[in-house]
Amino acid sequence: MEEKLVLVAGASGGIGASVCRRLVEDGYRVVGTDLNEEALSGLGAELGERFIAKPADQTDMAAMETLVEEAEAGHGGIHGFVNVTGWTAASRFETENVEYWQKVMNINFMSLLYLAQPVLRKMAERKAGRMVFVASDAARVGTAGQAVYSGAKGAVIALSKSLARENARNGITVNCVAPGPTKTPLFEHEMENNPQMVEKIIKGIPLRRAAEPSDQAAAITFFLSDEAAYITGQTLSVSGGLTMI
Ligand SMILES: NC(=O)c1ccc[n+]([C@@H]2O[C@H](COP(=O)([O-])OP(=O)(O)OC[C@H]3O[C@@H](n4cnc5c(N)ncnc54)[C@H](O)[C@@H]3O)[C@@H](O)[C@H]2O)c1
Predict the structure, then answer these.
(1) Residue nearest atom 43 in ligand 1 by C-alpha distance
(2) Among 85, 102, 114, which is best to mutate for testing ligand 1, by the most ligand atoms less than 8 A from CB?
(3) CB of 143 shorter than 6 A to ligand 1
(4) 149 included as an active-site residue
(5) What is the whole-number distance in angstroms between the Cα of residue 86 and the centre of ligand 1?
(6) What is the arithmetic mean of pLDDT over 229-238?
């Protein structure tokens, strides 16, 4: 069987690395991009030759066009594109400044446009492809302290639906996974420093635990698989029942 190629952005983060591990295990070849060069090369050492590391800043549109050209020229057509890149701090909206808002919008939304456009053009030529964007349950139900991030992730979901409509005729599906609290390094840090707050969050989750990164990877790989061929424009919350919408 020919190994399908998947481009994963935000590849060396907590959820991104889990997605890359799962994809390599499932027999895909993965081009992984991330700003964190060191973590990306560590992941490359772990995953071997089916993983190709391409460190880059996703907020640089020209760099993203080059990355897609190089990936396709060197490794074949991109079957799937998974966008995991994201960032926020926690603060009250009325205390924030425009530089912070721009950073949040650039990392969570603009960077997705910069990569989705060149990838879509390639997929449209081949009339096939799968896109999966990692959003957040913050976009669906709101999160205090993360107002602009929630807005940016809402934009990611709205974008996915419109791209799904525009590109269905080209055989391209576009879906979102919306994680709830997930055990990434930031979460582990909070568990050590603020265990009471974490306990309170977990009490509110019907399945009574935070997600493992592999829970998110399972939903993402489903959307990339043949089984999901008839699903597009959808957002799946992976949050232990925290949100049911
Ligand atoms: N962890 C959670 O509880 C949780 C909950 C809801 C949504 N999410 C979303 O899931 C995704 C992954 O989260 P995570 O917890 O794994 O976070 P993470 O910080 O571990 O991973 C994010 C990755 O994005 C990369 N990145 C940031 N800015 C970049 C840029 N300019 N160019 C290239 N790469 C850049 C980082 O280097 C990092 O590797 C994010 O989109 C996040 O918003 C996470």
Answers:
(1) 86
(2) 85
(3) no
(4) yes
(5) 4
(6) 98
Give tens-digit pLDDT for 118-177: 999 999 999 999 999 999 999 999 999 999 999 999 999 999 999 999 999 999 999 999
What does the DSSP 8-state code read for residue 49?
G
Pick the catalytic residue: 100, 114, 149, 230?
149
106 lines ligand 1 (CB under 6 A): no
- Proportion of the chain above pLDDT 70, given as a percent: 99
By CB atoms closer than 10 A (0-12, 13-18, 19+), residue 64 is buried
DSSP state of 212: P
Please tell me if the CB atom of residue 36 comes closer than 6 angstroms to any atom of ligand 1.
yes
Question: Which ligand 1 atom lies nearest to the CA of residue 14?
Answer: 16
**Maximum C-alpha span of the chain:** 55
For the chain, what's the residue count? 245
Q: What is the pLDDT of residue 194?
A: 87
pLDDT of residue 1: 53
Which residue ranges form the domains of the chain, and what is each CATH number? 5-180+213-238 (3.40.50.720)
Percent of the chain with pLDDT over 90: 93
Confidence of residue 192 (pLDDT cuts 50, 70, 90): confident
Ligand 1 midpoint to CA 39 (Å): 13
Pair 6, 79: CB distance under 8 Å: yes
β-bridge partners, 6:
30, 80
Q: 198-202 contacts: CB < 8 A, separation 24 or more?
A: none
On the question of pLDDT at 187 being above 90, the answer is: no
